[in-house]
Specification:
Order of helices and strands: EEEEEEEEEEE
Shape: globular
Radius of gyration: 13 Å
Distance between the termini: 40 Å
Number of strands: 11
């Protein structure tokens, strides 16, 4: 059974930093494209960052230069380093793994940026 477990969320002040982690199990992690999504209250879930199985990176424009996605295939973990956080970054952040027809989601971790 595939499991994605996020951690690292919390309350942070404007300009602060957080590092999210997503630990995967039950899947061949290195074969998956891994992503972070977020969903703010009353809004649709949106893609934040992607790291392909080959290491190609893509970011939503609003987080470029502030967020960094990375992965450690030896630890079956994907990370999202978030710097210079803004109130508009407040959301539940979800980890996603995608391979072929398969896609898996974590349960989400809350990030709240206070001004």
């Amino acid at each position: 059974q595939v499991q994605l477990v996020e951690s690292g969320g919390g309350l942070v002040q404007v300009g602060g930093s957080l590092r999210l982690s997503c630990a995967a199990s039950g899947m061949i992690f290195r074969t998956y494209d891994m992503s972070w999504y977020r969903q703010a209250p009353g809004k649709q879930r949106e893609l934040v960052a992607v790291i392909s199985r080959g290491g190609t990176l893509n970011y939503q424009d609003s987080v470029k230069g502030r967020f960094t996605i990375s992965r450690d295939n030896a630890k079956n973990t994907v990370y999202l380093q978030m710097n210079s956080l803004k109130p508009e970054d407040t959301a539940v952040y979800y980890c996603n793994g995608h391979w072929g027809i398969y896609t898996h989601w974590g349960q989400g971790t809350q990030v709240t940026v206070s001004s």
